[in-house]
């Protein structure tokens, strides 16, 4: 707990001696500015997660743009999106190619 870690799209992490599982479910929207393009707005990516704490499951959206929520408090744990890779692209990115860097802490 309290250490950043990386998940690939579709992967699950088991944390805090099995009390918490976190699934990186999807990136349903990715409007981040592609690296090869000059954009007026940096865009945003939505990361969908499923979190299970002591058997209670909940779904959450985390955003890459600081104008939107990048963290959530659920079941006494704060889950924060630190980064999403690869950078925005003009080509579609397959879910398994995404990497999300998360920080989970006990509140």
Structural class label: mainly beta
Number of domains: 1
Low-confidence stretches: none
Q: CATH first level: which class?
A: Mainly Beta
Helical amount = under 10%
The tally of strands reads: 8
Named at the architecture level, the CATH assignment is Sandwich
Query: How far apart are the termini?
Result: 11 Å
Q: For the residues shown, what is the average pLDDT?
A: 96
User: Outline, from the CA principal axes?
Assistant: elongated
Classify the fold: give the CATH topology. Answer: Tick-borne Encephalitis virus Glycoprotein, domain 1
Topology:
Layout (H helix, E strand, L loop, with lengths): L3 E5 L3 E4 L4 E11 L14 E9 L2 E8 L7 E4 L2 E9 L13 E8 L1
Antiparallel strand pairs: 1-8, 2-3, 3-4, 4-5, 6-7, 7-8
Walkthrough of the structure:
The structure is a single chain. The chain has a single domain (4-106), classed as Tick-borne Encephalitis virus Glycoprotein, domain 1, CATH 2.60.98. The chain is an all-beta fold. The model has no long low-confidence stretch (mean pLDDT 96). Strands 1-8-7-6 form a four-stranded antiparallel β-sheet, with no helix packed on it. Strands 2-3-4-5 form a four-stranded antiparallel β-sheet, with no helix packed on it. The chain is elongated and about 45 Å long. The N and C termini lie close together (11 Å). 0% of the residues lie in helices and 54% in strands. It has strands spanning 4-8, 12-15, 20-30, 45-53, 56-63, 71-74, 77-85, 99-106.
């Amino acid at each position: 707990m309290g250490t950043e870690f990386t998940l690939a799209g579709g992967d699950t992490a088991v944390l805090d001696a099995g009390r918490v599982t976190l699934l990186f479910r999807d990136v349903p929207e990715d409007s981040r500015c592609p690296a090869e393009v000059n954009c007026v707005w940096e865009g945003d990516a939505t990361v969908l997660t499923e979190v299970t704490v002591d058997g209670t499951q909940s779904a959450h959206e985390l955003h890459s743009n600081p104008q939107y929520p990048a963290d959530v408090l659920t079941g006494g744990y704060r889950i924060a999106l630190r980064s999403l890779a690869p950078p925005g692209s003009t080509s579609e990115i397959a879910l398994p190619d995404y990497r999300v860097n998360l920080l989970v802490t006990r509140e």
